[in-house]
Every structure is written in structure tokens, then in C-alpha cells.
Amino acid sequence: MSIRAAVISAPGRFGVERFPEPDPGPGAVLLRIEHSGICGTDKHTWRGESLQYAGTDHEREAAYPLICGHENVGVIEAIGPGGAFDELGRDLAVGDRVVPAPNLTCGRCKFCLDERFPYYLCRDLHDYGNSLTCLDPPHLFGGWSELMYLLPGTRLFRVPDGLDPQVAALTEIMAVTHGLDRAVQFGDTVAVLGCGPLGLMHALKAELLGAGRLIAIDVFPERARASGADVQLDAGSDCVAAVRDATDGYGADVVVHCTGFASTLPVALALVRPGGTVIEPGTFVDMGDVGINPSRDICTKGVTIVGVGGETLPQYAPALKLLARHAERLRPLVTHRVSLDDVGAALELAQSPDAIKVLVTPSL
């Protein structure tokens, strides 16, 4: 039997290909994909902006040809010898619905062994849909496929009973919001610059953490409105002046920069008050340098910058529980589901004001 998968063979080049169905080896799992999100990283990969993890030991280009898709939810189809287990060490079985972590680590380096560090800093990291090319057998290393091959050591998180798989597909981006945990104090004004799916997850979590006022800024007014923020601003306007007006001239306590473009980081630094915090979770792909004055923008203002290069494993189970509690509120963020054949068009759709979260649903 052959398995259909959507393949980005090079920037701007897409096709549906067939691969042999593999048998899972020891410790491996074969996952039947229900939904796989189109992430901002995938849009960069599609455009050829593909230098990832810049400045780390595993800096690299995206490994074309790729089966993308690292925001995944699915049902276990087969388990290799030795079995599989969830986040609590419970045995998993064929038919269980899980969300797999998108990264595979060595488990031996300092970044894996020291809990102070996020696991994605591992010196021998591999990430599904980005660094594992479909040229190498068993090929199915991304979620834009009917089946996905999960290598031994992949962490699996059980989806709570009753949680809509479409909402469970948002787990990875909710888990990326961990920068807020150390930045937001009760009553803070939080501004989100860029209200795509990642920005909207930050807006929701900031509200749950007790933000006193939410400010949403985006080039697409529809996305700013989707945040439900107290103040919704057009990124094309003088949003710095508007944020100052909304905060008695001080600026926001916390600014989350989720545009995905390095060129707007100076705007984020201008939005934050002296002594405030800027969280940078959105510029995963190296988009080049930007003009920042360290004295004016960071040093004398006493600004803290929190870099977030991905999710952390302890965030996954709580993220799933949070999604389950707020599923009705989050479900409208999934605006489109597309088949494998429509992935090329969907990558363009995902960058338009007509869409928020686009899911690839192989069964369509």
C-alpha cells in the first residue's frame, strides 16, 4: 500500500507524491494524521526563507524535499516492538489519539540534561517537517501526509477525551506561549504585534494570566478583532502613538512580537515601556539584521528581551488541558481545512486576510 503526502520539493514547488507504507521499528510509532497546521515557518519554507535555528549548534537550511507539518494530531496506527507511552508513562495503544512533540533530541547534551534550558537547544536536534527530508526512508517525517513516522524517542501527549482534534492541532502553538509565564504580572498591559495564530494564542493566554489590558496590532483588521482585545490597532497607522495614548504615555508592560518579520522588531521595542519586556517568539527563520540602537532601545530603557525558539515539553500537557477548557472559544480560529492536493494554494491562503489557522486534513 502506498501513502500520499504533500511535498515541497523546492521553494514554490509543490506536489503530491506516494511513498511505501512502513512498518514501525523498535520504539517507533506510525500515526494516522487527522490534522496538521500550516505554521508561519512553513510559509517561510515555501518562500525559500529557510535558514533555521540561526546561531545555534544546529543552524541549517530546511531539508528540501520536505513533507512539512509539525503541528500535528492523529490516531496511532501501529506501534513498533517495545511499545510506546504518553507523558505520564502510561502505555499507549493502537487507536489512541495523541499530539507528538515536533522535535527529537539526543538526550545526552547539556541542553537536554539541564532543565534550565529548553529542549530545542539540543546540539543534535531534529525537527519533523523541517530538518528530516523525505528523501530518506521511511520518508514520512511530516504531518502533511496520510501517515507520519515517529522515530524512537519522540514524546507523545495523550489528547483529552472529548477535545475536538481540530482544536488539539493548536497545541504546539499554545505551548510556544511560555515566555508569558515569566513576563506577565497581574494587571499588566500586554500588546501583541502580529495577530496570526501564534499572536492570538499569546493574547488568549495573556488574558488568562490576568492582563489588565490587551492591545492587538495587525495589518489585517480581521485578525486584530479575532483577539477580542480592548484596543485593536491597524499596524499601518501610528500604533506607537496609539499605544502611548492608551497607557498614559508609558507604553505596554509586555510586548509580544509575532509578525514573523525581523523588520518590525524595532516597533516592538518602541511600544514597550521603560523597564518592560519584549517577547520574541515569531522570528524563527533568519530574516536578517534590523537597525536597533542598543542604548536608546534596550540599555537606558532597561528593557528585557525574552527569546523563544519553540515550545518546551512541560507546556504540552497543560496546553492540551487549556485547549479543552476553552475549545468553544478557540474553534473559530480554525478557519479552513484543506486536502493534500490543495496544500500549494493553502500556503498562499494562509498568508491572506481571509484565513487565520489553516489545517491540512489528509482524509479530505
Question: In a nutshell, what does this entry contain?
Answer:
With 364 residues, the chain is α/β, with parallel strands linked by helices. It has helices at 40-47, 110-113, 165-168, 171-175, 179-183, 197-208, 221-226, 239-246, 265-271, 294-299, 316-325, 327-330, 343-349, and strands at residues 2-10, 13-20, 29-37, 51-52, 60-61, 72-79, 97-100, 103-104, 126-127, 147-150, 156-158, 189-193, 213-218, 231-234, 252-257, 272-280, 304-307, 334-338, 357-360. Strands 3, 6, 7, 10, 11, 18 and 19 form a 7-stranded mixed β-sheet that branches. A 6-stranded parallel β-sheet has the order 14-13-12-15-16-17, sandwiched between helices. It has a two-stranded antiparallel ribbon with strand order 1-2.
Q: Can you give a write-up of this model?
A:
This protein is α/β, with parallel strands linked by helices and 364 residues long. The chain has 2 domains: 2-158 and 326-360, Quinone Oxidoreductase, Chain A, domain 1; 177-307, NAD(P)-binding Rossmann-like Domain (Rossmann fold), CATH 3.40.50. It has helices spanning 40-47, 110-113, 165-168, 171-175, 179-183, 197-208, 221-226, 239-246, 265-271, 294-299, 316-325, 327-330, 343-349; strands at 2-10, 13-20, 29-37, 51-52, 60-61, 72-79, 97-100, 103-104, 126-127, 147-150, 156-158, 189-193, 213-218, 231-234, 252-257, 272-280, 304-307, 334-338, 357-360. Strands 3, 6, 7, 10, 11, 18 and 19 form a 7-stranded mixed beta sheet that branches. It has a 6-stranded parallel beta sheet with strand order 14-13-12-15-16-17, with helices on both faces. Strands 1-2 form a two-stranded antiparallel sheet. Strand 4 and strand 5 (60-61) form a beta hairpin. The two termini are 19 Å apart. The model has no long low-confidence stretch (mean pLDDT 95).
